[in-house]
Amino acid sequence: MTLVAGVDSSTQSCKVVVRDADSGALVRTGRAAHPEGTEVDPQKWWEALQAAVADAGGLGDVAAISIAAQQHGMVVLDIDGRVIRSALLWNDTRSAPAAAELIDEVGAAEYARRTGLVPVASFTATKLRWLRDAEPANAARVAAVALPHDWLTWRLRGFGPADESPLGPDLTELTTDRSDASGTGYWSPSTGEYDLDLFERALGHSAVLPRVLGPGELAGETVALAPSNWLPAGIVVGVGAGDNAGAALGLGAGDGDVIVSIGTSGTVFAVTTSPAADAMGTVAGFADASGLFLPLVATLNAARVLDAVRGLLGVDHDELGRLALEAEPGANGLVLQPYFEGERTPNLPHATATLFGLTLASTTRPNLARAAIEGLLCGLADGLEAVRGQGVVVSRVLLIGGAAQNPAVRSIAAQLFESPVVIPAPGEYVADGAAVQAAWTLTGARPDWRISIAAAPETDFRPVIRSQYAAHRVEA
């Protein structure tokens, strides 16, 4: 049996799956935590990767590996291959004014035409502009800019600072893939090329950018690393991907499938044959990891909305769901606009959460529990409508993420989304997508691994939920 490994280096943790390259059967897994916060020293990701690999039983019998990771994170390197400052993550909103400046200079429609995106604080370009203005000395030292999965892949292949890596700081050996490059704000899914004018406008000068590899291409091979020797030499290294594109690969998403993911962030995305270019900036026109395109809507507020209300009510997630199902659809007029951490879609980085419709009748624990779930899902339902507006035909909604296992979330999703909802069996689909890439790189053909469906709740559309939410919607 030939084994391959897939890695998901996400905001919260590093997950490793080891699968049979032929059947996709899961052999073993591992996990390690990442630090909290919106800026993180990339060395912590490297350490977590080693810990997760150890937790998964090592890589001694693995033939290929690929890394998917959180998108947009700004990893800036100096000429010696050293990380200059902690990486700003996708959910760091301090670059919101920089995004507005870039739009003023270039124009929203022109950005959408050239990159498929309109800048918001999440995207790498805005973080580079922030660095230029807020930390000019650090910006002046930047010799290369990478994304989290680019940097980890580079390190796996033996590159890095001379005193830490056997092959040294060869910045020209940085690689990425089209899905992650498409989230920077200076790469075009339509042309498949970097827009160096936009890059230099953001940072203020030129720098090395990772070479963009195609689906199934080889990034290189691992080099044994001393002193622990946790990484054997000669393992084939795949191209890697951004997390959402990795999930689409892991789910085997096809035409008509829209994925709604409830994690630290909420995302709505589909695999399409044509690139998106939304001048309003609601839909990001990303590329996918298979050679197609990935129109996507992201929200900052997702699973942690439920965490916040669960904590307020003093219950666990199971009890939150049970309370929510005691209330009627619409929560007796109680509406939660869940912008606890600002918001990306709509682009309101400084917004706060608001609870509407408080009356003596509506102020109950079940209504508050239900309003939390409805508010979370209404934001994602708005995202689904925006994706539809880009010409995507929706046959079914694949609901994934830890919250999708809650019966109340499933039931309310079937009342909100006008298309059939299915819930795949719990899995690490981002890491699975990376494992698909590893097998693809090893064999030269994309594997066809089947997924299991855990539930398919009956569609029970209740328009009152979305109409109430829309009545209080705040636009960017």
UniProtKB/TrEMBL annotation:
As one GO molecular function, the record gives: D-xylulokinase activity
Q: Which domain of life is it from?
A: Bacteria
Q: What keywords were assigned to this record?
A: ATP-binding, Carbohydrate metabolism, Kinase, Nucleotide-binding, Transferase, Xylose metabolism
Carbohydrate kinase FGGY C-terminal domain mapped to chain residues: 260-441
Site-annotated residues for Important for activity: 8
**Active-site residues annotated for this sequence:** 243
SUPFAM superfamilies given for it?
Answer: Actin-like ATPase domain
Chain segments carrying region Disordered: 165-186
Taking every annotated instance into account, which residue ranges of this chain make up the domain Carbohydrate kinase FGGY N-terminal? 4-250
What reaction(s) does this enzyme catalyze? Answer: D-xylulose + ATP = D-xylulose 5-phosphate + ADP + H(+)
Q: Which class of enzymes does this protein belong to? A: transferase
Could you tell me what this protein does?
Catalyzes the phosphorylation of D-xylulose to D-xylulose 5-phosphate.
Q: Which family does it belong to?
A: Belongs to the FGGY kinase family.
- Give the protein name, as stated in the record: Xylulose kinase
